[in-house]
Design goal:
Blueprint lengths: L1 H9 L5 H14 L3 H23 L5 H13 L7 H31 L5
Helix pairs in contact: 1-2, 3-4, 4-5
Length: about 120
Amino acid sequence: MLSLSKLYFYALPEQQIIYLSAGEALMASYTGTASNVYYVLNTICLLLFSYSILKSSQFKKSVGLWGLASGFFMIIPSSAGLIGMVFSLLSLIPWMVFIALLMINFKKLATLNLPV
C-alpha cells in the first residue's frame, strides 16, 4: 500500500486512476484474518492469565482485576472500525497498570527464598 501511494503521488493525473484502482483492489481483498486471530488469541490468553492471577494466593487481587479490565477492552479487535480503535487504546491504560503491578509482585517473589 505504501509503494502504491508513492507511485500515485508521482504519477501524472491521468495515470493516478490506475494506482487508485490497485489500492482499492488491495483493500477489497484484505480481510485482516491473521491480525484478528492474533488479537483474539492474545485476549483469551490475557483473560486466562489474569483469572489465574486473581485465584492465586501469591498475588494481590488488584493485579488480576487490572488484567481482566485490560482483557475486557481487548475483546473488540482494533480492526473493527472506530469502536475497535477506541477499545484497543482504552485497553492500554489498565494494561500498563497490570504490567507495573506484575513487575512489583515478581520482584517481591524473586527476593523470597522459596525451597525448590
